[in-house]
Structure formats: structure tokens, C-alpha cells
């Protein structure tokens, strides 16, 4: 106890605003279950692995820690036959509370042990002990009782959501019209009023009609009678019969809002049709359960996870898995891929110690520190060791938990702060944006991806040309389904499938025939000459047409190719193309190389200061209608410009044809006037707010321009770019080299939508393919290269 006396003045009791990091070390992935446990400072409440305690003590002088150690003990569990089989309740694969494809494992209980550690010699004093000074007793007790920093952040991020999946309260719930038809709904025996379907039935809460739901992509489901009824009547809310429970839970769909919703007055709305919640039992699968079932009916899941055979697990440096934190597989796959790139390893892993030592604030809130922690955790091998002798053969390796990293990089982001599944491509771009904001005064490892695109326009009225350039970090390719090399087989399969559906049968998933496309066809479509209407030609000072060709002006060290599989059908239903694209291991992209201005070409004249600049006119009523449908404003402007404000229908048709364009939502400048793309128009409401903080007009405009008029990001940008406020930003630099590449990684997506399903990544390591399926890392026996979504090619 005497050791404590000289340090009591620095011991503090955490308040409600303090963050207590008691789940994991802020610099490593050591936690209470690690062999050496976790040390929590009684001064700053940061958690530290044993390797960092001594350095922290010498840097801060804080000497007193709570040592936390959690021991796991196996307990007996009842046999599988002692109770009903656990039903699937969540879509998430292999996460806590989610679908576990390998049930029946051993169960464990945990025992927590605590000690007080006093530095510098790691003197351990058992806890509890009533003889501890009062300040130590209060500090430790409060630390143990408080929610951890991670749990607090998670609860804040999930506020207003259920299970990480936000369901809005329907705008129709409060004043829903319910007709007095005298109809009463029986407790069972339901049949669609327009066909003989007895499953997937929906009760319309306005008129009491019972109708079947949508037809699923495998031919099962309903005959679309419920949605057709909405189209005819406009009655918006329907509840899925068989999903209603005593506690008022149910699948409720709003056709006008096109989403599953909450209805706080469901009890009253059901009572109108004679339904008593107290008597209800769930008898049908929810929409989430059906989505899971449908996903697993295809052989896509088995192929991408290589689950048909027993894969050989791998351990050691570079073979560390990542825990799935509830649909975080998109994050796991992207970060595993990034830390195979030498620039990322050099910046964050090789310099991890310097990054930690230079961190002056909270390490858990420092982007570079958390990148270094993640990279070191993945590549050190410290958290990837073979299970001890005698362990169950099916025991999963623990992997590392990127909870602190996910909390930081998702903070304030509408999508990445939630537990909902996200698009891996969008997350990749989000990480690059964070890298740009956090490496302004040092080398940016994401420069490995950056390349320059050349766009050549040729005016059809004058034959004069114009060249423009833009930067990009991934090559997004549309997939020409008409270019399938096995069209006859696909046609035969579709006919067979239609015949089976007509007979109420379902084909064997293993008999699936996917359209097969060669990557060459996708690249050919990318380089194809495009006709641009409404092109303003400075040669004739009026609108005409132009021919546009796109090429790569530079070739990066690493080229990330995105196959644009997520699109929309003509009826506006989001779909994923079920297609196999033949991706070569060796790729020569020289046909994509830009040539620049050619001899004999005549340049389109620059737009003079006194030249008449046509000001685009947009029908604001159509703009509003399109934006209410969820389309970005710039996309709406494009649609109206190219359809000359003709009608909402023509604008919608244009959007459907161009929704996968890479610049779909980018700031719009009429073709031919790209020279003026720097004439940024700032958000006039945000401008005075930023200037009111003491910044000049030009500084506020620059901040808004660099953040696409996002006021919150603009303020953050100002404080992190003080040295740039009054200096022009340097032109981006592009690496360039040979156009020959080899495939080194690919990320695959399983499921019908980017917002559900599962991601895995295959990485070429030491000449062999390795599958990273969250915390499972194994030697790949049959990498499904043709089913990927994102492909990483390295310059040879």
C-alpha cells in the first residue's frame, strides 16, 4: 500500500463524460482475455496491453493501473436433441446473435480477475481490498460500473435503430385511413384474394384485403398482387400475416415509402380488422429470414466461401482474421486488401511506434494511430497462432476486433456509423477520403491507386477537338450482358427455369447457368465512342453534338477495378447482376492508354470572357419530384439538361440509362463548358455561418468546395488545413508506368443487394491464394475469380 501513497494525487474517478477504454488496448489488440490482460490507467482511463504500459508510464508519469484479466472455462451444454433447434433470427452471418452455420459448439463461461498495478516494476496488489485508499476504491469501482468507451459509441451510433437496421416510423401510421367494411380477419386459413397462394400474404391495413407479395428472384414468393393493389388504390400500409407477435412486432411495408417501416399504432390498426395481438404467434419467416434463405439457395454462397470442402487454416504474420462486428464484413475485406500494399505497410506498420509516440491526444480518436494499430495487428502474427493442442477441430480462430477502428472512421457518417451492411466500393472511397484528410503533410499511401483519365471531345459540326482530364482511384466498368459468350446455354436455362416455375417446381441451384462475360468486353464498352448531345461548341457558339472517347492518361501502381453489378431494373427495383466475368491473372491495358493531342487536330477555341455562356434552365418542379424519389440534385440536373426539360418520364428514363455512370452524382457542368468546372457555387446558407467563425470569404468558399458544400466537414477541413487556406492547392501528382498488371486480390459479394449479404476477400500471398472470411483465414483451393466485385491488379 505504501507504493500507492506517492501517486494518489494523480488517481481520478471517471465522470460521465470520460471515456473508459476497458475493452481493448488503444495501441494493440490486447484485451482482458489476452494472456497478459489489460491495464487501465486510473488517471486517463486508457487501456493498454502490457507492451505499452512502461512506455506510457515514462511518457506521462501515470503509475497506477487496474489490471483486468478474463479467464475462460469450458462448461457442459445440453445435447442438440434436448430442445428445439435454434431458429435463424438475423441475416448477419457468423456474428453474435446471427446465423451460425456451425452450431453445436462447446460453451464457455468467464471469470474476471482484477489487480492494482503500480509502476515502474509491475507491482501487483490483489483486488478487492478494503484497505485501499478511498480514491482508489472509488476510481476502480466506477471504471468497473461504467460503460466502456466502445459501448457508449456503439449505442450512440445505433440510437433509433433496431438491431442496427433503422426502420423509420411510417408517415402514414398516425392518420392511417381504415375503411369500415365490416370485414373481420380470421386467425388462420388465409388465401390470396386473387390467386391460390397461402404463403407470403399481406393484409392491407386500409381496406382489409389479403393479397400475395412480390415474386422473388428464384421464382418463389407471390404473384405481386399486393403491390398491384397498391398501384390501383394507393392504400399504403400492409402487414405480413404470420409475422405478427404478441409484443407488437411484425413486418410492415409502406409501398409509398418503399421500405419496411414501424407502425406505433399497429395494435389499433389490427384491432380494426378483429385481430387481437395477445393471440398472435409468429408462423412465417420475416423478410430478413427470407432474404437469408434465398441467398443460400444459390451456389454463389458456397462458391465464394469455398464451403464445399474443408479448407486448411493458416496462421502467422499476414494471416490474421478480423471479427465481424455485425455486418462489418465490407470493412474487414477492404482493410485486409489495403494492408497487402507496400505503401500502406511502410507508412503505418513499419512506422507504428513513431505514430504512437507522436500522438498527442486520445489514441482512440487519432486516425493515423488506429490505422497503425490495425495494420500492425493484421501483419504481426501476434494474434494469429494455431489453437492449443486438444482444442476442438472446428474452433474458430479469434482474430482481431476492429471495434475501435470502426467507431472512429464511422463517426458522424450516416452509413458507416451503423451496423447495417454497406457497399465495399463506397467504403473504399470513404477510407481514401479519410487518408487524404489525415496525411496532408506526409506521403499518402492511397496515391498508389490514383490515375488520370483523359476525355476527348470532337465537335461534330466543326471537327475541332477538346481534351479534359480528371483524377480517379478506381476503374468502374459496366457489364454488357449482351456480350455473353454462352447466350445459347443461358437462353436454354431460362426456358427450363420458366417451365419449372409454371409447374410450381424449383430447379437445382447447382444447375444454374450464369451469363459469362469476358473482361475484354467490359473494357471495350469503357473505351467505346459516346455521342454527347447538347454539347456547347465554342467553334460555333451554340449547342450541337460531340463524340466523346475516354482513355487512361496514366497507369497507377495498383489498379482497382469495380464491376458494376448493382443496378436497377426498369421497374426501379434494385438488383444485382448474377453474372460470371472472366478475369485474367495477367492483364495488358495498353489499348486503354491515352494518346493526347494528335498531329492535324484543331483545338476548340477557349470560351472568351465576352462569349455568350448558355445558362442551363431546369424545370424546378421536375427537379423536386426527382429529388423526392431519392436521386442526387446533380443527377437530376443532368437528366433535365439532356432531355431538354421535356417531361418527368423522359428525365426518369435518362436516369435509368445513366444511373451507373461514374459521374452520375458529380457536380454538373454542361458538356463543352468543363473549363468552368472550377466556378464553384458555395452553399449560400453555409457561407455566412463559416465566416461568422472568423474566416474570410475566400477561405470559407475553399472549405466548402473541398467538402462538396457539407458545412460540418467544411469546418473540420478548415482546422485540419490551416496551411492551405491562403495558398492554392498543388495539382495532383500521378504515378505512371507500364500497363501490364497481375491480379493480386479480389473482393466478392454474396447476396442480392449491396445492403445485405456477405463479403469475403481472396488475396495472393507467397504465390498462393488465401481466403479471408472475417476471422477465418485459410488456403484457397478454388478461388472464384469470375464472381468477384472489386479486383486489385498490381503493376508487373
UniProtKB/TrEMBL annotation:
UniProt-listed SUPFAM superfamilies: Cysteine proteinases (SSF54001), RING/U-box (SSF57850), UBA-like (SSF46934)
UBA domain boundaries: 617-658, 681-721
Signal peptide: none
Domain UBP-type residue range list: 168-277
The USP domain, residue ranges: 320-796
Molecular-function annotations in GO: hydrolase activity
Enzyme class: hydrolase
Reactions listed under catalytic activity: Thiol-dependent hydrolysis of ester, thioester, amide, peptide and isopeptide bonds formed by the C-terminal Gly of ubiquitin (a 76-residue protein attached to proteins as an intracellular targeting signal)
Protein name, UniProt field: Ubiquitin carboxyl-terminal hydrolase
Organism of derivation: Nicrophorus vespilloides
Gene name of the encoded protein: LOC108563428
